[in-house]
Each structure stands twice: as C-alpha cells, then as structure tokens.
TrEMBL record:
Membrane-traversing stretches: none
Domain spans labelled SOCS box: 209-257
Protein name: Cytokine-inducible SH2-containing protein
InterPro entries, per the entry: CIS_SH2, SH2, SH2_dom_sf, SOCS_box, SOCS_box-like_dom_sf
Length: 258
C-alpha cells in the first residue's frame, strides 16, 4: 500500500509575481543604513611622537614614603649615636666646641629652612659649621656647584660622618677624591671711596678635620652601646658571629663605629 501525499501545487502567475516582490522587498535595505558612520563617533588614539622622551631623560618621580623612611632611619641612628645635639643654635654649638681639641664635632638641627642638619666642627681657627644637604634620599655636605659632583652621597648622616672620619684618619687630604667642602668665607665689602678689593689669599681656607665626636652628657652612651661600637670596629659582618638572635638584632640597629 502506498501512501500518496499531495505535493505543492504550482503557483498561479499573480501569486508568483507577488512572492517575488516580497523577496525583493525583504532584501532591499534602506539607503540610510548603508552610509558610513560619522568621524566623531570613534576617536582614534593619536600618539604624540614629539612629546615622547627616552626614559633616562624623564625627571625622577619623587616618592614621599621613601623620603620619610630615609629621614626616620637617620633620626634613629643619630639618637643612638650620642653626638646628636638636636635643636641647638650655632652660637651654642660654638660655646660647646670652643675649648675642645681640633677635630671635635657634633651634629645638630639646621636653622636654615632648606636643610635638616648641620655639622659643627672645631678647626684650627675655631668652630665652624657645614650644612648637610638632603636630596634624592641621600645626604651630602653642602658645597658650591663646581665641587658638588665630587662630593659623595650617603643614605644617612652617620654613614656620611663615619666616612670623613676614616678619610681624615688615613691622612689622604692632599689627593682625596672627595675632600670635605669648606664653607665659603664672607666676601670683603667695599668702602664708600670704592677702594679696590684685594684678592683673598689661599691661606684663608680652613681645612676640616673630623677626629672624634662630642658626646652629649644628657645622652650618655650605655655600656651595651659601647660594646656594640667595639664589635663593629673589629668585625666586618656581624651575621657571621654565633650570637643569639636578640643580640644580633641589637648590633644591626646601629652598624657604625662612632
């Protein structure tokens, strides 16, 4: 038995024309939708090649947190040292160092708003002061522009002072690659008659020699600290010593010899 199903009947002419018109109408798109998008819809990312600079020429980005940690560490070292005198004036530092031997020094707060610390030293001509400059998380002695590239920078003030103490102890003043900068002497003033100013002789220069710190009486160093100084002078690396952890941590808190 075969089941026969009636197939599609042929379309009449009027139905065939109508179906073709519907197919053409469904495929034909409005002309407005084929127009390109306006230029302002998508903004092209333009790279300004003229403003692009090499990484080395770009200014260094300052990190306030790094500066804060560096200054806080320096203050911690100075308080442990015993020769940090805090906020005394230049005249008070002169009075303390006036009767001390040559090479005696102390560190105090600078009275200049652009500096943090000042190094006061007893020289052959009396006490003098050298400001300590802080920039780029480093400390260096203040000097003129010509000798500044030769002045070494240090991560803290105690390292700076210890370096120059060792430099003076080795008696390398004549050929030292980083001499201690001398504070400039005040220039002589001309009188009312416009008398020509004579050149200042080179003998007026004062050489700074750092020998020993002037310890403050109110912050006398303890016996533990004095023993720590002796260990630091005799041992290059305290981590090599078979010490308890607490004692090793105490030595690391002040890794200096002054």
């Amino acid at each position: 038995m075969v089941l026969c199903v009636q197939g599609p009947r042929p379309l009449r002419p009027e139905e065939r024309i109508g179906q073709q018109s519907l197919r053409a109408r469904s495929l034909k798109l409005p002309e407005s939708t084929m127009q390109p998008l306006p230029a302002g819809v998508f903004l092209e990312e333009v790279v300004d090649e003229t403003s692009a600079q090499p990484e080395s020429d770009q200014p260094k980005v300052l990190d306030p947190e790094e500066d804060l940690l560096c200054i806080a560490k320096t203050f911690s070292y100075l308080r442990e040292s015993g020769w940090y005198w805090g906020s005394i004036t230049a005249s008070e530092a002169r009075q303390h160092l006036q009767k001390m031997p040559e090479g005696t020094f102390l560190v105090r707060d600078s009275t200049h708003p652009s500096y943090l610390f000042t190094l006061s030293v007893k020289t052959t001509r009396g006490p003098t002061n050298v400001r300590i400059e802080y920039t780029d998380s480093s400390f260096r002695l203040d000097s003129n522009c010509l000798s500044r590239p030769r002045i070494l920078a240090f991560p803290d003030v105690v390292s700076l002072v210890q370096h120059y103490v060792a430099s003076c102890a080795s008696d390398t003043r004549s050929d030292s690659p980083d001499p201690i900068p001398v504070p400039p002497l005040p220039a002589p003033k001309e009188d009312a008659a416009s008398t020509p100013v004579l050149p200042v002789p080179m003998t007026t220069a004062v050489h700074l020699k750092l020998v020993q710190p002037f310890v403050r009486r109110s912050s006398a160093r303890s016996l533990q600290h004095l023993c720590r100084l002796v260990i630091n002078r005799l041992v290059a690396d305290v981590d090599c010593l078979p010490l308890p952890r607490r004692m090793a941590n105490y030595l690391r808190q002040y890794p200096f010899q002054l």
